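Hi support team,

I'm filing this because I wasn't sure whether my run with copper (II) ion finished correctly. The job status page said complete, but I'd like someone to confirm that the output block is well-formed before I use it downstream. Pasting the exact inputs I used:
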Amino acid sequence: MAGVMTVRRIFPWLCGAAVSLAAGGALATQPGRADPGQIGFQTPVTPIAREILRFHDDLLMPIITAISLFVLALLIYVIWRFNERSNPTPSKTTHNTGLEIAWTVVPIIILFVIALPSFALLTNELVIPPADLTVKVTGSQWHWSYEYPKDQGGGFSFDSFIKPENEIKPQDGDIWLLSVDNEAVVPVGKTVVLQVTAADVIHSFIIQSFGIRIDAVPGRLNETYFKAEREGIYYGQCSKLCGKDHAFMPIAFRVVSQDAYQAWLADAKKKYAAAPSAVSVAAAQPAEVGD
Ligand SMILES: [Cu+2]
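And here is everything the job wrote out:
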């Protein structure tokens, strides 16, 4: 068991360190966002994100590393053993039944070893548990809008735009390209179901630390969920090329205690009460005479 744990730790570390050193990057990660030059996943704060990280670090990386090293060793051996000088009279062998069966069956076994746990992970991601809170998320060119339903203490909606570069205050924790004017706020330890759609073109909603990524498609309501176990601010970005400002529509979710959430709800109701609906339907224009 100790051996398995050691392998678990060493593989991601080894692979991460090698790539990271090559890229001149860092291994440390802050929850909620990526560090500059970081290699690997962001710190997971939901059970699903942890499961994704385990699947990647403990299963995929060791397999990928072993296959790469095996193929590299074969190549080096072939170059050394079968070059013209060491092997002047090549063998005329063209088939080897045992070898052919082996290189068909072994990859099938590897695929099964990967596929079976991936089905369990997919099921956990796709089966939505009962919600403590539902938030509707709408992607637009180029911002996100959040709608908190009335029957859950909300009854308001608001737009969330990127903070302009000249308003970024690093001393207040602002991060250019990630900070927004209005953050979505959710309580810690609660199952939050997101209903995700788009108002114009296809966007994609992703928060890496929550382990969620779901397309925002006009005319469709996609569902995903998360249960954040740690308070903090968690960032994401649109991850489907949606137009010229695709890179400038960050996602920011602040996870707070239940009390802080109730206080935010009360404030938000006042703050956003007067604001027009986030998802406004184009007003009907009177038909022009002669058209
Ligand atoms: Cu987008």
